[in-house]
Specification:
By secondary structure, the protein is an alpha/beta fold. Helix content is 28%, strand content 22%. The N terminus is likely disordered.
Length: 536
């Protein structure tokens, strides 16, 4: 942007509102018509896009996809980096009644093929950076060459430009709101699409940015949203799209680095973003000179989720960035909790209270609702509509109690309704009949200066059933060694009770996390369980 909004110190975190403020012209399309010259997007390369330019490409893409045979309710999939093309696809689907399936571009061909086939996608749009996996997926899914499109050059794919070239930039007829159909991560099996029924409304009839009101983020108000994680992730796209729809320019990052994030916040006076704890950890590891070189006082909402945040990391970020560091707990399926910095400092470890549009409850294994203070499985209820897992009615019904659903997290709520998570049920370690929560162990490990990333999980033990194993990614300047392993185990003796301490430490060059910070713990744990039966 040529003129960045003026910077201001981050204010104290506001109370969570129950409704958004007075609405501006509703949605990107109305805003583009009202103010076509306004900058709405800055690409990772620094190119500025006006509302009119983006709107024209969105309209052309709708016409192009319809010419390719897509009708209301049909699906198309994208394997794209953070880019203009990603938002063009999102906005096209949103005004033409299509389902958009964003695919994790770190997946390999057979994994992408499963999603393309299972979703029933009629068109695949991929970037040349992911040519090998996209080609293998399209071949395996049996997608005809006429319905494969590439940004850049991919053998056997038509140019993405062919979808737009020759198409009018006029507003398409028969406009109706479409949805994103995200696929679950698949860390415990085949991923499943989360499909919501189309509402049959004009896009402008639904307030598409209202979601951000939950976090106290208002329409326009000189806000600038920084997209610093991959858009294929449910929350990242939801935050960015909502910001766009309520008039906030988007600044896109493609490949995240800690210092580049600070530079962009300073350069564009970014006010809010969606983050994960791994990014906090990397930011805090920067040299003090790098931290001091950039002004981050424009930040009003640094909202994090997707993975547990160790207490010492959270405190350090609040000390640095102030009251803008806020946390949420949610599921791709919908609903969740939110905690301001003030909430968290009052109740360390909480992920907050239920959103105004959802409810939280704790149930035991018999389906009985538990009172405050008792540990059980966390269930969520969305008050704005339901969902189903695409082609999997069994999974849709399996993890539900009435209108509540669960994704398998363990936690408790206090008397005031604040939620405290303990861990994922599938990750809990049971050693000698005692429940051990890996997140607590990982938090302790991360306080050691030699630890860049850590994972704890149970491995087989002939007498106890399981014992605690730690896998460590060494920080820069530290090398894996027996001496370092011993030092880390000694460190744990000062941090953890005996039954919680790792008995052994292994090292790994890079922890298997997706770019959103979610740890693929099964990839670490499963080799230790070959030939053994695990109870969970």
């Amino acid at each position: 942007m040529t003129d960045s909004p003026s910077k201001r110190p981050a204010p104290a975190a506001p109370n969570v509102p129950t409704a958004p403020a007075a609405q501006p012209p509703n949605g990107f399309w109305a805003q583009a018509a009202a103010d076509p010259d306004r900058t709405v997007l800055v690409t990772p390369e620094g190119e500025e896009w006006s509302a009119a330019r983006l709107h024209a490409d969105v309209n052309r893409l709708v016409h192009g996809l319809r010419a390719a045979g897509l009708e209301k309710g049909d699906v198309f999939a994208v394997v794209l980096p953070n880019s203009v093309e990603f938002f063009t696809a999102y906005l096209a689907a949103s005004q033409a009644g299509f389902y958009l399936v964003p695919v994790n571009h770190h997946l390999v061909g057979p994994e992408i093929a499963w999603i393309v086939s299972d979703s029933g996608a009629k068109v695949l749009i991929a970037h040349e950076r992911f040519a090998e996996a996209a080609t293998a997926a399209a071949d395996e899914a049996g997608l005809p060459a006429s319905h494969r499109y590439a940004v850049g050059a991919v053998a056997g794919f038509r140019s993405y430009g062919e979808l737009l070239d020759g198409q009018p930039d006029t507003v398409p007829g028969d406009r109706t709101l479409g949805w994103v159909m995200n696929y679950t991560s698949g860390t415990t099996g085949r991923p499943r699409g989360i499909r919501r029924p189309l509402p049959g409304k004009l896009p402008e009839e639904t307030y598409l940015g209202g979601f951000l009101g939950i976090f106290g983020i208002r329409a326009f108000d000189d806000n600038v949203h920084l997209v610093c994680s991959p858009l294929y992730h449910t929350a990242v796209l939801q935050f960015a799209a909502a910001a766009l729809h309520i008039g906030h320019p988007l600044v896109l990052m493609d490949k995240w680095t800690a210092e580049e994030m600070l530079r962009l916040i300073d350069r564009h006076a970014c006010t809010h973003t969606h983050m994960v704890p791994t990014q906090f950890h990397r930011l805090l590891a920067l040299p003090q000179g790098a931290k001091d070189a950039y002004d981050v006082s424009s930040m009003r909402h640094a909202i994090h989720g997707a993975a547990p945040c160790p207490d010492h990391v959270k405190r350090a970020m609040i000390d640095w960035w102030g009251g803008c560091v806020e946390e949420y707990y949610a599921a791709s399926e919908g609903g969740g909790a939110f905690a301001t910095a003030e909430d968290w400092l009052k109740k360390p470890g909480t992920v907050g209270k239920a959103w105004p549009i959802s409810e939280l409850a704790i149930f035991d294994d018999d389906g009985e609702r538990l009172p405050a203070g008792e540990l059980g499985t966390v269930y969520i209820k969305m008050n704005t509509g339901g969902f189903s897992y695409h082609k999997d009615e069994g999974k849709t019904k399996k993890n539900r109690i009435g209108d509540f659903f669960t994704v398998g997290d363990l936690g408790l709520m206090d008397e005031e309704g604040y939620l405290f998570l303990r861990d994922r049920k599938i990750d809990m370690i049971i050693s000698g009949g005692v429940n051990i929560y890996p997140a607590e162990i990982e938090s302790a490990l991360l306080t050691h200066p030699a630890v860049a990333d850590a994972a704890a999980f149970g491995i087989p033990h002939p007498s106890w059933g399981e014992e605690v194993k730690a896998v460590i990614e060494p920080a820069e300047g530290f090398a894996a060694s027996d001496a370092l392993a011993a030092e880390i185990l000694n460190h744990c003796e000062r941090q953890l009770a005996g039954y919680k301490r790792p008995k052994t430490v292994d090292f790994i060059e890079t922890m298997p996390r997706d770019p959103n910070g979610k740890l693929y713990k099964r990839r670490l744990r499963d080799p230790y369980w070959e030939g053994h039966a695990r109870a969970m």
